[in-house]
Design goal:
Elements: H1 4-67, H2 79-92, E1 96-103, E2 106-110, E3 118-119, H3 120-123, E4 133-138, E5 147-154, E6 162-167, H4 169-176, E7 186-191, E8 194-197, E9 204-205, E10 216-219, E11 226-230, H5 234-241, H6 246-268, H7 271-279, E12 283-292, E13 298-309, E14 313-315, H8 317-326, H9 330-343, E15 355-359, H10 362-366, H11 370-377, E16 386-392, H12 399-410, E17 414-420, H13 427-433, E18 437-440, H14 442-445, H15 453-467, E19 471-475, H16 480-488, E20 493-495, E21 503-504, H17 508-515
Parallel strand pairs: 13-15, 15-16, 16-17, 17-18, 18-19, 19-20
Antiparallel strand pairs: 1-2, 1-6, 2-3, 4-5, 5-6, 7-8, 7-11, 8-9, 10-11, 12-13, 12-20, 12-21, 13-14
Helix pairs in contact: 1-5, 1-6
Length: 530
């Protein structure tokens, strides 16, 4: 059996473990939510960086295409006329290195050279196409070997004529492909099988074999190029950022743990499992025989409650009965006992003089519910045995409670005063209550054969009971010396381990058969006469 300290500590640990578990789950959940949020935010930042690079280059190319519309209509104008126009285009496009005018496949003019007179396709064979073309390659005419981006805009009527914009892509990429740490480490421009990485001075085949795959690659919808973005994965970055959320998560963990611990005080203390035990019928009824002193016959039993939890084993009544009293469960517990006892009454002798004694809490009487519950739960099944209710001597009854006592007497219910000699009952109290039986507390039996003061008190209590003509039942009788002493003193009945330990109700018929049937004395209204 568990004592109250062990049970209290056990349930406090349960509450604490539950609070820590839920707090931990909330903390882990909060970290998981923050991780998902960071994951989405980082992925969004990386996509926005790549889209911004695409948008900036799209703007540059679209601007070049717009200001070239007039030039695409030139026919046979000479270079003296075209050169200023090309220079004006270059001024409007700050990232342009050169603008070439092509006529019938020949570069006839540029903003830097008046009459280059070179074959376009020999210099830039990639531009041999009758459509708008974008090429990334090393420079051929100016600053040879440096990376440039070519935009070829042919005329609709003469596919071999048009304008070539040569962008200083190294300068352009310094801000278009700039990293955004820690989310973007580098970006690269990919055009027609070639790639240029940020701050690189050389053009590499695409995809470049740099040992690192891009995190993502986005394509322009307006022009034939794409942007590759190099960075740690969003998962890696999100994990790296999680530690900064730990203080907030720790605060949330402590808050939830504290709230759960406080909120579980009512649910996790023993009263909650006790309520569940009643619902699941885990509380078992036991009985301990009460033996007539002179005849040795069993004339009744005291009904006791025992609690066996499937996981935690036996819990002492000294633990759960006080807790039930302190937490408003003692009346439901008594109702549970009456219900179960009514269902198992067939296990006892079908005799009106055989009594079943139950303990009743003071508040059950004080609230005026005892008579009603006995009528509904016990008398309604028309039992053949008699019911006896035990009140402790410490119970204080008000005027209306004595009226209940009278009503119980009318219903044939006996009344016993339990723990006699330990309370503060007076002679007038006994006269008002008019119990059928006085039950001596077990502590007095332990003094028999000793010189303790309580031994003298025991004799005085026995004499008082005789003077009041009240039957006396001694509890806690454990040996023959005690039984002989009480028998010699004229004590009416005995109860204790000497005769039987508390047993499940189902075992009582066998015990009774072995000992001999009760032989109650007929023609009396009270307990068996000695």
């Amino acid at each position: 059996m568990h004592n109250s300290t062990q049970v209290g500590q056990r349930y406090r640990w349960y509450r604490l473990l539950l609070a820590i578990l839920l707090g931990g789950l909330v903390g882990i959940g909060a970290l998981a939510v923050r991780y998902q949020q960071e994951l989405g935010a980082i992925g969004q930042i990386q996509r926005e960086a790549a889209n911004m690079a695409i948008a900036q280059l799209d703007d540059q190319l679209a601007h070049a295409e717009r200001i070239s519309q007039n030039g695409l209509g030139w026919r046979d104008e000479n270079c003296e006329f075209i050169n200023p126009q090309l220079s004006s285009m270059a001024i409007h496009l700050e990232t342009i290195r050169a603008v070439l005018w092509v006529k019938n496949g020949l570069i006839t003019c540029s903003n830097l050279l008046h009459q280059p007179r070179k074959s376009l396709y020999s210099v830039y064979p990639e531009l041999h196409a009758a459509k708008r073309t974008l090429v990334l390659r090393p420079a051929q005419l100016f600053n040879r070997g440096t990376p440039v981006l070519l935009l070829w805009l042919p005329t609709a009527q003469e596919p071999d004529s048009g304008i070539v914009h040569i962008f200083n892509i190294a300068t352009l990429s310094s801000f278009i492909l700039a990293p955004h740490t820690p989310y973007v480490e580098a970006m690269a421009l990919n055009v027609a099988g070639h790639t240029l990485h940020f701050q690189e001075r050389r053009i590499l085949p695409y995809p470049a074999l740099l040992g690192t795959a891009p995190q993502l690659e986005l394509h322009s919808t307006a022009y034939p190029f794409s942007i590759s973005l190099f960075a740690p994965s969003p998962r890696t970055l999100a994990l790296q950022r999680l530690p900064q959320h730990v203080p907030l998560v720790l605060l949330l963990f402590l808050l939830v743990t504290g709230l759960v611990y406080l909120a579980s005080a009512n649910r996790m203390r023993l009263t909650y499992p006790l309520t569940q035990a009643m619902q699941r019928r885990e509380l078992q009824l036991y009985c301990q025989p009460i033996i007539r002193t002179q005849s040795g016959d069993c004339e009744g039993v005291e009904i006791l409650l025992r609690w066996y939890h499937p996981r935690h084993g036996w819990t002492s009544p000294e633990v759960f009965i006080p807790l039930a009293e302190q937490n408003g469960l003692i009346i439901p517990l008594t109702r549970y006992l009456l219900t179960m006892l009514a269902a198992q009454r067939h296990l006892f002798p079908a005799d009106a003089n055989f009594y079943l004694s139950i303990n009743v809490a003071p508040e059950h009487v004080a609230q005026g519910l005892l008579v009603q519950d006995i009528q509904q739960l016990w008398l309604s099944v028309k039992p053949q045995q008699r019911l006896m209710v035990e009140l402790t001597e410490r119970t204080h009854l008000a005027g209306q409670d004595y009226a209940q006592r009278a009503r119980l007497r009318e219903l044939g219910i006996w009344l016993a005063l339990d723990d006699f000699g330990t309370g503060q009952g007076s002679l007038s109290y006994l006269q008002d209550l008019q119990p059928d039986i006085l039950k001596l507390d077990r502590t007095f039996c332990a003094t028999i054969g000793s010189d303790a003061i309580n031994a003298t008190v025991l004799d005085s209590l026995i004499d008082l009971a005789h003077q009041l003509h009240l039957h006396l039942v001694a509890e806690g009788v454990e040996n023959e010396q005690q039984a002989d002493y009480l028998r010699d003193k004229g004590v009416y009945a005995l109860q204790g381990f000497l005769f039987a330990r508390p047993m499940p109700l189902s075992e009582f018929p066998r015990w009774l058969a072995q000992r001999g049937a009760c032989q109650p004395v007929a023609g009396r209204s009270g307990p068996c006469q000695a």
